[in-house]
Amino acid sequence: MLLTQIPAHYQKRREKLMQRHPGAVFILPSAPELIRNGDVHHPFRQDSSFYYLSGFDEPGSFLILGSENSAPSRKSKMTLFVQPKDPEKEMWEGERYGREGALSVFGADEAFVNSELEARLPDLLKGAERIFYRLGHSEEMDRRILAILEVVRRRLGRSGRGLIPIEDPQVAIGEMRLYKEPEELDLLRKACQITAHAHRTAMQELRPGMNESEIEALVDYQFRKNGCQRLGYGSIVAGGKNAACLHYRSNNETLRSGELLLIDAGGEYGFYTSDITRTFPIGKTFSKAQSQAYELVLSVQKAGIAMTKPGAKLPEIHKTTCELLVDGLLSLGLLKGNRVELLKTSAFRRFYPHNTSHWLGLDVHDAGLYTQEGEPRKLEPGMTFTIEPGFYVQPGDREAPEAFRNIGIRIEDDILVTTNGCENLTHEAPKEISEIETLRSKAF
Ligand code: GLY
Ligand code: MN
Ligand code: MN
Asked: What CATH number belongs to 179-442?
């Protein structure tokens, strides 16, 4: 269904971006349409920055921001190149906005059909001091854009000037996307609530003997039933030793009582995704070793959340996570030796090989620099990120005490930095052992 109106915040974002980059023109192509096989495409999902600045989610489009030709008050001029209206195509693929919709619904200052890019873009680039365009993402797109820039260069004649400098827009736009506005937080909160609810439902519905794929489908169903348009990333539904495979995606084995199930899955709501991991028994209760390992990861995760406030830094949270994990692994007998040495040589990476956090938003690994002037950046209100420590014993690890083999645990929440601390956006997903065991007992 086509929209008739979109909120004003897209326009405000464009104005802010162009105020920060006067004299620049941004060229953003829509996400590519990817062929799966034959004439079947992968589901289309708009490029996050394109969407962030326009709200327009059709493929085959170009978003151009800024132009020398615009009056000073209209430096954020938006030109959209879009798919043409085409009743025959629309009968097969669905309705399109066309030029009219780009102007009336999305507030473009100018709109053209996409086949006019080559003819129109050189004029829009007249006088541009800098171009923001992501080179190297698509060879075909690069060829098109560079050919257009060559036309612009030739038009400069004997001015002595060369090709307009090209910069990757990732940092400029990422710098804005990193700080979530209230209307973005509304969407992210909703994604987090729906996702937390789906994880809870999985804890209630799982029975030994089910296949990982059934739980994948159950979680997917809960997301969509409650308003998510799609998943934010491919779900990981990993029973037993499969949980030690960090990007496990097969999701096709039978779940056995006595083992743990790790689910890392997030629903996308209004283009914002949650990212939750929970680990719980396939039977009713955690075994002793499972609960020892689980309590360790949970206490480490809570320590990370407790550190989160303006001024804190993600590497500090990761460092504390690693230190506390090493302490726990030493006391459980999984690691032996000197604490300082173990941390220095990263020997613990055998059990915890990944990082603790990443930005979260329109993309599961969201845009935004992690450093500023070479230093880890300080957390500020409005930033959202994950805290996701884990503990994994690889199936081939014969040195680990037997009780800990086949265990993979990760606990992941989505955190918003507030003015005086933080808010756990995914607190509704159960993670205390007592709460999980109560849910699991009721499942039988
Ligand atoms: N689900 C992807 C991640 O946790 O980073
Ligand atoms: Mn994550
Ligand atoms: Mn995750």
From this structure: 3.90.230.10
